[in-house]
Write a structure and sequence with these properties.
Elements lengths: L6 E4 L1 H9 L5 H5 L2 E4 L1 H7 L6 E3 L5 H7 L5 H13 L3 E3 L3 H9 L3 E3 L1 H10 L7 H8 L7 H10 L4
Parallel strand pairs: 1-2, 1-4, 2-3, 4-5
Helix pairs in contact: 1-3, 3-5, 4-5
Length: 154
């Protein structure tokens, strides 16, 4: 299965959730380059060969975000803006609102799982969503239902 030539910047939520259920293998099969800023590396607490850490140049922008959202999300959004025309993987609602103000292309963990199913990386998302629910990864019942509908698993 070919790796898509697509880059993404991520905050820590998806990485931590997938690491807890031993499914980090999904991500490098979907994205050719997986960028994280230093704050996200510190939050996740692990390094993998396919996780590319890149320093954010615009610390003023990061600091301006800090009044609204966390350190990792602030650096991830700033990095996505610096890399231009790149998708950002964000789950936090406040962080998504900030990213929307800059017209960033976004996906969340559930959207990434739907993409993984469409690309044949996973056969079903239902077991993955179920596993995430056992490790304190919150997915609203409405989002879960919609994702299963879109995946033809309802």
């Amino acid at each position: 299965m070919p790796i898509l030539q697509e880059s993404i910047v991520s905050d820590s939520t998806c990485l931590i959730g997938l690491e807890r259920i031993n499914r980090l293998d999904i991500l490098p099969q979907l994205y050719s380059t997986f960028w994280i800023p230093p704050a996200v590396k510190a939050e996740v607490g692990f390094a993998l060969p396919w996780l590319k850490v890149r320093q954010v140049e615009n610390q003023t922008l990061v600091n301006s975000f800090r009044s609204q959202i966390g350190w990792g999300e602030s650096e991830a959004i700033a990095l996505a803006l610096e890399l231009e025309a790149i998708t950002i993987l964000l789950d936090d609602k406040k962080a998504r609102r900030v990213a929307e103000q800059f017209d960033l292309s976004m996906t969340g963990t559930v959207g990434m799982l739907l993409k993984a199913k469409r690309q044949g990386v996973v056969d079903m998302i239902s077991p993955i969503l179920g596993a995430l629910g056992t490790v304190e990864f919150h997915i609203s019942p409405a989002l879960r239902r919609r994702a299963l509908e879109l995946a033809n698993e309802s």
